[in-house]
Amino acid sequence: MSPFDVPNGIYLIDPVRSVIGFSVRHALVLDVRGRFTSFEGILKLNGRHFSRNAAYMSIQTESLDTRDREKDRHLKGPDFFHSSSFPLMTFQSAGIAGAGDEGVRLDGDLRIKDVELPVTLDLEFGGAARDARGRHRVGFRGTATLGQSDRGLVWSAPPQSGGAPVDVEMSLAVDISAVHMDPENGP
Fold this sequence. Notes:
Layout: E1 9-13, E2 19-26, E3 30-36, E4 39-45, E5 54-60, E6 64-65, H1 69-76, E7 88-98, E8 103-112, E9 115-130, E10 136-147, E11 169-180
Antiparallel strand pairs: 1-4, 1-11, 2-3, 2-11, 3-6, 4-5, 5-7, 7-8, 8-9, 9-10, 10-11
C-alpha cells in the first residue's frame, strides 16, 4: 500500500459496519467460531508519514456470540475470558510496516484478562471512499493468531481426565470500516 493511498486524520471504527470475529480450537477437533458484538476504536492515519499511523480498540468480552448459549457461558467464564472480572479486551498499536502491495503488519499489545500479549495483525487495506452521507471511510481486514502456552495466557483448566491443560489457540479476524472524524460536524 502506498502511504498516499490513505488520507490523514482520525477515524472512528464503525461498529455497525465492522466485524471482530474469533475462532478457538475446541477439543483438538474443531473450531468454535464467533464474534464480538460490542467494541469501539480509533485509527490515527497519516498518509505522508506511514510510521505515524496508530490504532486503539476496546472490545467488551461479555459481547461474544457463538450462537450457542452454553458455549458462550463457557467462553465468558473463568476458563477463557472471565468476562465478569475482565470486561474489556484492548489493543494498542506499537508499530506499523508495509508488507507488500496492499498489506501492512500492525504490531501492538493485546490485553486479555490481566495479560498483555505482543501480537501482529496482518492487514489488507480495503480502500477509501465517500459513503452515501458524504463521509470519508476507509476499510481494513486482517488476522492474528494467539497461542496460550508461549505467552503466559491460560485459557483452560486441566482436562477432567487429568494432565495439563490443552494448548488452546485463538484466531482473531477483523473487518474494519472506519469513518473520518470531522472536528466541526462529527463522524
